Amino acid sequence: MCCRRFRETVTDEDGDHVPLIKTWAADLFFGILIVVSALLLGVDIELSLQQINTFKDVLFWIEFGFLVMFVVELIMRVWVDGCKYFLFFPNLLDTFIIGCSVVEYIVIAAVGDDVEISALSLMRIFRLLRILRVIRLIRVCPKLYRICTSLVAAVRAVSWVFLLLFVFMYISALSCTVLLSNSQVPLIRDNFGGVFPSLYIHFVILTVEGFPELVAAIAEESGWLWYIYFCCYILFTNVMVMNTVTGVICQTVVSQGSADPGAKAQCFKEFDKLKEVVLDCMLLEGLSYDVHDEMSFEVFQQVMRNPGVRASFDAVEVCLDLEEEQLFNIIDENGDGKLSFEEFFLSLWRLRGSKERLHSLLVQSDIVHTHKRMRDRVAQMSEDLQACSSQECEMRGCQILDCFSCFWQKLALLVLTLCHSFCPNFMLHVPREHTLLGDFGALDYLSWLHA
């Protein structure tokens, strides 16, 4: 019973029981312990280098207290997760670091910590492993851990960029070695007298450090064209390639963050909470609704004029500066003037963060309006062509006119299909039944047009 109460002492916002070790407060507490322990480790190393033994015993017992806290944390996490705790590499690394620290203190307690023992290679290894405690800070900080995982995911893409950079540096180094290895200037001969020195100096020039004197000496001896060579080299390597690396890393971090299961779960939770708040505001306003019914434009106006509803959407930064008719046209996917409640919430949820992008929403509203007008005009044109061709065929019965009208029918359908496909709206989706294709599939239509 005590263990059960210990494991379920905290509840989240939904009322579900959460183990104490899984809360943000526990992560913050142990994160602070890791930071303080890392600072004390630096103080201990500095005092040992200065051969100051005044605070040696105090630091020993303080670090021992931190180790006890870390052992307690490990036991609590294993108690909550069970054997699944050891299935993840970060948890294994934590266990290894804490285990090495425990072994170190056991050895010190059994043998002693005099000069002879501290000089042993085994003790030096244990003391070096204490530095790895700082790595544990990555696990207790979710955002820091997410950045590290994103950087690891970006290694594959970045490695190809680095390979391109190395190939370019290698070709440049070989060329400069052939041209400058016989120079009479010692500075040039020392840096370009061999392949490896030339490759290294090209890397140094890539970092834009200490190259002006070397470039000036080369240009003075061999001509001013070397200025152009090194300028082009720096522009390609330092500006283009390195900025490409930065862009690849940023793109990977963003994609990893959007694909994070925790972020998705939090997004769904916020969506459900927003939906609940809006429905409660509608009830307080006296608006009767059924989630299976459809929302007309008049009901949409009443809902969006409710202060509680507007405050709820404003909290998620949905732009409400548009006119109600424009906003309704944007989120009306079917274009039939009606919205289901699920379509209403999902469409407005997609607009979160649009508060600072009013211009893009205005453009989107114009695109939706123009697309609807184009669709109606093309539909009317196709109906007129079909009616005209039918009348001509009935009156004359001419095979040539029949073929001619059939050609215009196919042409009208082709134009309509292109207009249906060329809809650069971000949220709009025009169903297939609104076009003249009817129930035809894409393959049926193409085969019929080819015939």
Give me the secondary-structure topology.
Elements: H1 2-7, E1 10-11, E2 17-18, H2 24-49, H3 56-81, H4 89-111, H5 115-118, H6 121-129, H7 136-140, H8 142-153, H9 155-180, H10 186-192, H11 195-206, H12 212-222, H13 225-258, H14 261-285, E3 294-295, H15 297-304, H16 307-315, H17 324-331, E4 339-340, H18 341-350, H19 358-396, H20 399-421, H21 442-450
Task: Explain how this protein is built.
By secondary structure, this protein is mostly helical. The protein folds into four domains: 2-140, Four Helix Bundle (Hemerythrin (Met), subunit A); 153-258, Orthogonal Bundle (Helix Hairpins); 264-356, Recoverin, domain 1; 361-450. The protein is 74% helix and 2% strand. A two-stranded antiparallel sheet has the order 1-2. A two-stranded antiparallel sheet has the order 3-4. A hairpin with a 5-residue loop joins strand 1 and strand 2 (17-18). Helix 12 (212-222) packs antiparallel against helix 13. The longest helix is centred in the C-terminal third of the chain and has 39 residues, at 358-396. It is flat, with a radius of gyration of 35 Å. It starts with a helix and ends with a helix. Mean pLDDT is 70; it is low at 1-9 and 421-451. Residues 325-354 form the EF-hand domain. The chain crosses the membrane at residues 24-43, 58-80, 92-111, 147-180, 200-219, 226-249. It is a multi-pass membrane protein.
| Largest beta sheet: strand ordering | 1-2
Kindly report the CATH topology of the largest domain: Four Helix Bundle (Hemerythrin (Met), subunit A)
> What's the CATH class label of the largest domain?
Mainly Alpha
Beta percentage is under 5%
The pLDDT mean sits at 70
Tally of discrete structural domains: 4
How would a textbook summarize the main sheet?
2 strands, antiparallel
Count the helices. How many?
A: 21
The SSE order reads: HEEHHHHHHHHHHHHHEHHHEHHHH
- Fraction in helix: over 70%
E-strand count: 4
Using only C-alpha atoms, the radius of gyration works out to: 35 Å
The poorly predicted ranges are: 1-9, 421-451
What is the CATH homologous superfamily assignment of the largest domain? Voltage-gated potassium channels. Chain C
Q: How far is the N terminus from the C terminus?
A: 78 Å
Structural class, by secondary structure, is mainly alpha
The gross shape turns out to be flat
Oligomeric nature of the chains: single chain
Give the CATH architecture of the largest domain.
Up-down Bundle
